[in-house]
Design a protein that fits this description.
mainly alpha; 7 helices; 2 strands; about 60% helix
């Protein structure tokens, strides 16, 4: 197997999938952050997501949720980068050690399965959620849907990159 600096070469399509995974989270995160800063989102006055409740304490939750989700999405890059195979040397005690394949592949697999199940199940209830009288209507509903639609790709992309990581690391090790 061809290597660069001791690491197996990651196929271009897998690298693109790893880069795309965190991008699938970006639209919904930006939408949540915009609401957190008071953007009118189309929710009715009695809904907790109504703009009269923002900015406020819930803003911290929406921003925190967006940052945590994006951080988790960015971890996908570790499955195609050297720091996902060997602990960087600057890390105390563990620096320079190889990362056991299951230590990355098992959490990534569970995450891919969980995200896929959650997003697919949520998509089945989307029409009911949007039928709620306090849910956004018209352009606001279309914008919200367009921002959340890319999330459906997150789980499958993470799953694909995880399988490629597992196969590559098993062949190399």
């Amino acid at each position: 197997m061809t290597t660069i600096e001791g690491f197996p070469i990651v196929p271009r399509a897998v690298r693109w999938a790893a880069r795309a995974a965190p991008l699938t989270l970006l639209p919904s995160g930006l939408w949540r952050c915009a609401i957190a800063f008071g953007m009118p989102s189309g929710f009715g006055a009695s809904d907790p997501m109504h703009r009269s409740n923002f900015p406020g304490w819930t803003s911290l939750y929406l921003i925190g949720l967006s940052l945590v989700a994006e951080g988790l999405g960015l971890l996908t890059l570790g499955l195609v980068r050297p720091w996902g195979e060997r602990v960087p040397r600057w890390v105390p005690v563990l620096g320079g050690r190889n990362i056991p394949v299951p230590a990355a592949a098992v959490p990534a697999s569970l995450g891919a399965a969980a995200v896929t199940v959650i997003t697919v199940l949520s998509s089945f209830g989307w029409d009911e959620e949007m039928a709620d009288p306090t849910a956004p209507k018209g352009a606001a509903a279309w914008l919200m849907t367009a921002c959340y639609l890319p999330l459906l790709a997150w789980g499958p992309l993470l799953g694909w990159v995880t399988v490629a990581y597992y196969r590559r690391r098993r062949k190399a090790g």
